[in-house]
Amino acid sequence: MHDVAIVGISTISAAGSSKNEIIKKLKQGISSISDISYFDFSGFSSNLAGNIDSETWEKIKKIAIDEKIDISSALSIYSVKMLLEDVELHSKNIALSVGTCNGGIDSLANFYHSKKIEDLKNYPIYKQMDDISKYFNFSGKKYLFNNACSASGMALSYGAQLIDKGEAEVVIAGGTDPMSEVVFAGFNSLKALSSENCQPYGEKIGLNLGEAATYFALESIQRAKKYNHKIYGTILGYGLSNDAYHPTAPDIDGSGISSAILESLKNSQVNPNEVTYVNSHGTGTRANDISEFTGIKNVFNDLSFPYISSMKGYVGHNLGAAASTELALSLLGLQEGVIFPNVQFENYRTGCNDNRILREVKKVSGDIIFVNDNAAFGGHNVATVLKTNTFGKYEQGTKKGGMTSKVYINKGSFVTDKGFKSFNMKANFATDNILKEYNSKYYQRRMNELTQMGIIAADLVCDKETKETGLVYGTPFGSMTSAERYMNSIIEGGLDKASGIYFQDLVLNSTAGRICKAFDLKSYSSSLSSGGNEDLKSLEIAYNAIKYNFCSNLLVGSGHEQSEVVNQITSKKFKSSSSFFKISNVKTKDAFSIEDIFSFSISDAKELLSKLNEVIERNEKVYIQNFGKSLEGVFDNLTKVEYEEGEFLSGGSIEKLIEKKQENRKIALVSISLIEEIVVVELEK
């Protein structure tokens, strides 16, 4: 990527929403972390957070009430409105890439108090991309990444890839997470909060939570110059990894963050000695800072060691919006020719005593290449390489390489609570303890059903050697039983008695992280939600990762865990299941070749038929799984089409492929989500 420009920035956080106000505060080293005033913090170890001002919140709440949406969606809409006022994008076909950690959690908490179904229906995390798209009538592709605290970094990076590969003309990418007393209680249960202003890399231990929404407008440099758009910086590439270590703590040797940074530099065709600055994750916690600093040191040698700082001392840890918000703050500083330092602290933390961890503003000029890195629960790491020029000079990049790889589905598996099947075997379970029965070495106490099924499905397709293998995983709701148990711990005991055991599975990417740990999957790693067609949506992300040579082998998984709460959201009972593909750039016997994958949204059946017409013509059979509004009768006269109203949310298409694995012909799998988002996969045996 050498031609992706950031042409618009909108950021709302504790530091404010005015660019000039933010720059002034950070230049003066002013932290915006303050006392919490809007919920009872008695019983918590801290009453501090990075809070958005009350006047702004009243405007956001009005959007939520008027549109009947979750407060997280409203916060995103408010930010995107500011973005569109800042830059005129001259496009109707705008793609959207969103990252969030706990978006929708406020509606779930409201439901537990109100018991109103309308509150519950605003909970699903995938609904946010739909709310934003509908509000602005965006007609392009849309994605939602739930990689916890690295989610907006993933959203930005994938958005840049869409521009770079010509799959979108304009992308709005970023992330959001509002403050939630339910989430605050969870971090309190982990004893991670600080009762003072947090000091990343300083001797005082602990983090302050924050809230924010930050979005960027992305397009090519050529297009930016055509419309005379201001360019804040360019995105050169990104890298992903997984620690495969622990649900909530980073690998102590920093190898996960090292791997992500090294991959980002390789994919950007940038040498380590060209990097001036690392805008680091730097949470202030005991676990993160020394691990991250060690990981950074593993990448850069002493002679080319970059400056390092974290923005969390100014605005708090904004969870799913952390990557985008802290990048925005750094970019605003670099427009002024400065790197913002860490918030002031007196003494370095043991193991972090290096004067390149900045405590004072650093002046810079000319071309500045820097890395934005973020880590997360579930072990998900994202590093993005960017370049900015303090004089505003940008030239269209010369693309190097550009070769693509063929991608093959070599293995597939499908698991329910009754049994499993794959391309070459099938069996039933004899007990309810399915993972203990299948292979007890993978089982851990209190492991939820979603994770158990996911591990079995992954094991059925996983090779013994996984060193260069990654994972793309999707789930619409995560483990809802774990979320329910966490919420019940609060209802029964109060916020200060929130369960730290179940809190770690409140984030939807926890299952992906546990699968990575079970099989030591440390390569390209991401987690997403799309509303029921995650099996094919995950395959779309993974297919492009191998096609564009980010990696060569991936497990691609999805899963849904049935619960009464989910049944109320969907108004239909979908069965629990998990499914996996093993895909590679190397073909094995009986593999399916992936000829194409694409996704789009529809407004009605007529539009769907129009967009599927060519797919039906060029394939011998088209298998459609629908989880949204009924389309019974629409395909009755099309002999090539086999239509089903799916019963296995997020997994029906893989089950269908396993059924048809012996057929030597061109086929297409089509999956329609709960929000009418369609993914099409065309295959040839």
TrEMBL record:
GO MF term list: 3-oxoacyl-[acyl-carrier-protein] synthase activity
Domain of life: Bacteria
InterPro entries reported for this sequence: Beta-ketoacyl_synthase, Ketoacyl_synth_C, Ketoacyl_synth_N, PKS_Beta-ketoAc_synthase_dom, Thiolase-like
A Pfam family annotated for this UniProt entry: Ketoacyl-synt_C
GO CC annotation: cytosol
PROSITE patterns the record matches: KS3_2
SMART domains associated with the record: PKS_KS
GO biological process: fatty acid biosynthetic process
Keywords of this entry: Transferase
Residue span(s) of domain Ketosynthase family 3 (KS3): 1-388
Family that this chain belongs to: Belongs to the thiolase-like superfamily. Beta-ketoacyl-ACP synthases family.
Name by which UniProt lists this protein: 3-oxoacyl-(Acyl-carrier-protein) synthase KASII
